[in-house]
């Protein structure tokens, strides 16, 4: 795939045929897709939304306390919901527990998501993104757990296998930042536009139908 480097607003991007990704500064971190091994990203672990036989898989490494993940979710949710409803896309949402102080807050919420009921879990994700400014400003992890239980009536789930599997997969694939989103060999983040995402999905669907 042809690409060129672009400087915009002090950040460096690589322009591919459909979208911008990914030499992008987030604080002290830089996401460099040249180090990410897309072939190591699997569909085994994660919340699975939609037809398991869908020709396009959208695999999302996210953390619910990350504002960049919230942007990705809000920007893409309507388009992805349409493709999921049509049976063309399956979303696989991988809640990536991280030890960065502000992301550890998201780790607490992840413990309460029910992987056996992915549609219900997706509604909870929507809630916690919407209220990110409330629970994300709580000053300790116990208060966040209490918030989850009081506001949503949730209980801690047995997600240990899922959590360990997602972390092991992310390490193996060199996925360091959230959000990191995969459609086949394509890797992108929250900077992708809705139009670019739609074009990418349509191209994958066309290829699958050949």
Describe this structure in words.
By secondary structure, the protein is of the alpha+beta class. It has a single domain (37-208), classed as Glutaredoxin (3-Layer(aba) Sandwich). It contains 7 helices and 9 strands. The chain has helices at 67-85, 101-110, 118-130, 132-135, 141-152, 160-173, 194-208, and strands at 4-8, 11-15, 20-26, 29-32, 47-49, 56-62, 89-95, 180-183, 186-188.
Number of strands: 9
> Which of globular, elongated, flat, extended, rod-shaped describes the shape?
globular
Order of helices and strands: EEEEEEHEHHHHHEEH
For the record, what is the CATH homologous superfamily label? Answer: Glutaredoxin
First and last CA, distance: 20 Å
Over the alpha carbons, how many angstroms does the gyration radius reach? 17 Å
Structural class: alpha+beta
The assigned CATH architecture is: 3-Layer(aba) Sandwich
The number of domains: 1
Strand order of the largest sheet: 5-7-6-8-9
Helix share of residues?
Answer: 40-55%
Q: Write down the overall mean pLDDT.
A: 88
Q: How large is the share of residues in beta strands?
A: 15-25%
Identify the CATH class: Alpha Beta
Give the key terms.
4-stranded antiparallel sheet; 7 helices; globular; 9 strands; alpha+beta; 210 residues; Glutaredoxin
Annotate the secondary structure layout.
Layout: E1 4-8, E2 11-15, E3 20-26, E4 29-32, E5 47-49, E6 56-62, H1 67-85, E7 89-95, H2 101-110, H3 118-130, H4 132-135, H5 141-152, H6 160-173, E8 180-183, E9 186-188, H7 194-208
Parallel strand pairs: 6-7
Antiparallel strand pairs: 1-2, 2-3, 3-4, 5-7, 6-8, 8-9
